[in-house]
Structure formats: C-alpha cells, structure tokens
Amino acid sequence: MKNRPDTGNSEAPATVEPGRVSLLTFLGCCVYGILAAFVFCFSGAFGTFGEHPVRDAGLVVVTVISSLALTYISLLLYTFLRHRPSTPGDPTELSWHVMIPCRDEESVIAETVSSARSTFPQMHVWVIDDASDDATARIVTGLQDFDDKVHLISRRPPEARTGKGDALNAAYRVISATISTDPDQRKDTIIGVLDADGFLSENALDLLAGPEAFAAPDVGAVQLEVWMKNRGDKRPRPLSGKLKNLVGRVLVRMQDIEFRTSNSAMQMLRVQTGTVGMGGNGQFTRLSVLDDLDQAYGQPWGKKLSEDYELGLNIITRGHRTHYIPEAHVSQEALPYGRRLLTQRTRWAQGNMECAAILPALRRSGNLRVPGWAEIHYFMSQPWLIMINLVLGPVLLVLAIAEGRFGFTAGESLEWIVLLAAVFIILPYFLWGIVYKYISGEEIRFTSALFFGAVYLIYVYLTYIYYPRAVGRIATGQNAWSKTLRNAADLAALRPQTLREDLLRLAVLDRQVLETLADELDGFDEYVQELVRAFGLMWPRRWANLRLAVAAEDHTGTMDALASIRVSSHMLGAARLASSAEDLERLAAVRDYESIRQGLPIIAAVGEETVEHIRGEFIRS
C-alpha cells in the first residue's frame, strides 16, 4: 500500500463536504482572480488596460481562465493531502469477473492472466480476442489447460475490430448469460476491465469490497488508481542507445507522476463532487448496473473513443454512484516513445471531447449537485480553454513586444509581476514532482523531486499539442481507434535462436522426480497434478516478475524472482530451467545486470519449453 500524508485518522473515509468544496471554489476564484487581474490587466505588462477594447477583452479572458485553473489545482491539492485511507471489506461476499480486451497482445497477455488468476483464486478471467493476427488466442487456450477459470471469447469479422466498447459489450453478454437472473446475485457480481498489460495490486479486491466501495449498495462502479509498472526500467527502449533510453525513462516517470498525483487527486475531488470517472484500466462495475445501462442504451459501453469515461457518465446519469480507491492500484506499461505517447493521448483527448454530447442528458437527470455540475463542466471545457489560451497567449505577447514591453519591463512592480507569473505558470504543476517524492514509496532524493517537478511542468504543457490534434481529427471526421504498440513487443528481437549445449544436456522435465514426490505423498497423484497445473499457470507471472526486476536493476526483486523459479523448478524436476535460474543468480550476486539481460531470453525460452512439456505429459496425455 502506498504512503500518504498522515491525516490523524486511519479508519474514517475522506469527508470533504460538498458545501466546503463550493466555499473553497468561491474563495479560490476570488483570490486568484484578483491576482490574475493584477498580473494580466493592471500591471502594465501587456499595455494600459482600457486603451484597446479588443486587447482588454483578451486579457479578461486570460484572467478568468487562469483563476479557474489555479482554483481547480488548489482544490486537487487540498483534497489529495487530506485524503483518509479506504477501509477493506470481505471480497468473498461478492462474485468477481474481469474482462481483458485484446487485439494482438501476445507479448503481454500470458503474464496478465497469470497474475490475475494466481493473485485472486476466486476471480474469473475472460479474455476477449478481437480477431488478433498473432498468437494471443493460442496463448490463452494454453493457459486454459491449467485453469478452468480462464475463459476465451473469440470475435471474428465483420463483428470484430469495431472498437473496444463493442468487444466489451460482446463479453458482457457472454458473462451475463452465465450468471443467475436473481437480482441480488447480479447486484453482487462485479465485472472489472483490465488492459492486456494490467496487474492488480494484491489488496484490490479487499478494498473494492469495502464499505466505501461495493459494500455500499448505492455504489455502482469503482475505479482504482493507476501505476506504471515499468517506472524503474533502466532501459525502457532496449533496442535504442543511451540518449533515447534517458528520454524514455523520463517519459515513463512523468506518466507515473501524472496518474499517481494530479490524476489521482482529480478523482479524489470527484469522490466529493459525485463525478468520479471510469478509466479503461482498473474499472469495476456491478453486473446489475451494466444491465441497467443495457436496458437504457441498448448496450453498456458506447461507441466513443473514450468508452470508459462515457460509461462513467452514463452510470451517473442513471442515478448510480461512482467511487475511487487510491490505496489499491492497477499497474500498466508506460510509454517510453514520444510518438506512441502522442498517438495515445490524442486518442484520449478526442474521446473525452466526444463525451461532451452526454452532458445534456446528465443535466436533465438531476443527479448532479452544484459542485459536481461545476467540476464536470470545467473538466469538459478544458480542451476549449486550452485552445483559447493557445491563440490568445501568442497574440498578447506579440502586442506587448510590438509596444516595447518585451520582458515586462514596463511594469510598475516587476518583481511581483514575475513572481505572480511564476505562480500561475510554473508552481501549480511543479509541486506534483515534490508530492510524488512523498507518496511514491521510493527513495527519491529531493533534488530528483525538483527535477521531476521541472520536467513535469513541460510534460503537462504537452496538452497544447494533444488537443489541437484531437480537434483536427474531429474536424476532419477521423474517429478510428489507433492501437498503441506494446513495449514488450520490442523484446522479441532479443530472443535466442538456440540454447547452449550444457543446457541441452539437462532434462526439461524429469518425470521420475514427480513420481518420487507422489510416493512421498502416499501416492497422491492428484496433488502432483495440482502442482504441475499451478506451475504452468504461474510461469508467466514468475517470468514477468523477473523481467521487471532486472529492468529496474532491483537486486532484492531479482534474487527473489530467480529463487522462486529455481525452487519451483527443482520441485518438478525441471533441471534445465533450474540451471538457467542458477546461472542468473550467480550473475545477480555480483550485480552484473548487463549479462543478466543477455541471459533473460534464454530463461524465457527454457521456461516456455518446460511448460509445453508439462502440458504434453500431464495435461493432454
């Protein structure tokens, strides 16, 4: 569980009253409005106010936008810093299913399914193969050999590849048909959505079953916090040089800061305003609520590019409450490639803008309080406010330079002007780097936190690129879903063609070892069968744990992952895999990560070979 500021109460949930939010919003707008008016309108930095009506109107607009932005960010910080931990519940009182939509996800799907099933034995995992061209379906079918709670839903053209929402709707109908029509049972059945690279934290179901979440009968959907699981990766771009990997590491870290600080704070504020949004990864919804959406709209998920946010808005419109849990999380891959990140964020921006069409129905529903109405309309207006700033900022600056006011030298109080300008432009975003240091649970030096804050400032202002691109796509009628390539796919080029001779002389799987084990257990063959099934299911997760630990050069994590592989392999008589793990353990002992990286493809290949032998000798024989 993550570290957060101590609030003095470890049991009670956060209780920022809507009335207080409204008061703070009003006060913030007044204070920041006065400061912004001084900087932009009356300082003289942009000319004498009252001389040119058109310029004056532009300055007033910038003043209003700036005061609203600072008020919103202040509310986020206030809510974030006084958040009180959520309370766990009993997950056995509910039935759990997760859906994983996939299109060409062979590089990550095995470890995702393995992680979900080995961490949560009571959870059913439904993989939706949306007409993949790669081995996604075959991999899932192989996992089904070891676990009857792994399910594959195959979609084929022309129905397939029509959007993530359609894939989720198809899976909903399949799952729905397997659940009793009893209303109470459907209300107690929880349907989650994971990305193909999503790992749930071990406390996820406990907190989802808590009194603030699904133990509350009026809560219809819950969103978990999102972490970047490759945030410690030293070489996020394994096929590139040092400079590109440095840029990649920074991009990955910025995404982790974004989701765990400002985005998380936004959701915590929305808990108070009743407008929590659903994300594409780590969202959980009652089956009964999906039934309600199906009846009202013909299907639970819609056609918009941000089908996740659309779902959340429709849930609120139907009168169900949404909630957010920051103490449990889902981990996903951050993107270390600028172009891939640009593609992803442009799609998100366009999808959020499309969701503005839902606001009239949401207003008519009467389910929004005043703070919720203000929050959701401000959030939805941000793309257009950004576009206005993108136009007004350069125009006002050019006018100031043309009048000889370059550098704000004409201001009467230069120091105050510069200071307040820094407050409006820098401080609101810079602070998140410092906040991240204290909540990340990692040993981050204060100088590094300052660096993160400075870079995060630049990262945030990249929205001035995403939204214009999104507007351009909308204007030209482009609404195709652009899939983001997985980082793990780059590792395929590093896999070896052949194994070393010394490894080839060792047994892949020694059946005699398992027979001896069965004899020691008084012939309990069913226990051995359970053991080999567990190994087959767990292997992708063990491999992922090793890969991530080595990528981050985490010595303890690497040693633990290798020990897990070695011990479990010895128990089964998988001598080739055990020896491969021992080889890497010797390298890990002296922290030779360069050599370990070169050995990773070998242990991956031997592990897959071992699983295939188990499947052939014990499962399909």
Automatic annotation (TrEMBL):
- Keyword vocabulary terms for this entry: Glycosyltransferase, Membrane, Transferase, Transmembrane, Transmembrane helix
TM ranges are 21-46, 58-81, 384-402, 414-436, 448-467
| UniProt-annotated location(s) | Membrane
* UniProt topology in membrane: Multi-pass membrane protein
Q: Name one Pfam family in it.
A: Glyco_tranf_2_3
Principal subcellular localization:
membrane
What InterPro entries does the database record attribute to this sequence?
Glycosyltr_2/OpgH_subfam, HPT_dom_sf, Nucleotide-diphossugar_trans
Q: Say if the entry is tagged with keyword Lyase.
A: no
UniProt xrefs under SUPFAM superfamilies: Histidine-containing phosphotransfer domain, HPT domain, Nucleotide-diphospho-sugar transferases
Q: What is this protein called?
A: Glycosyltransferase
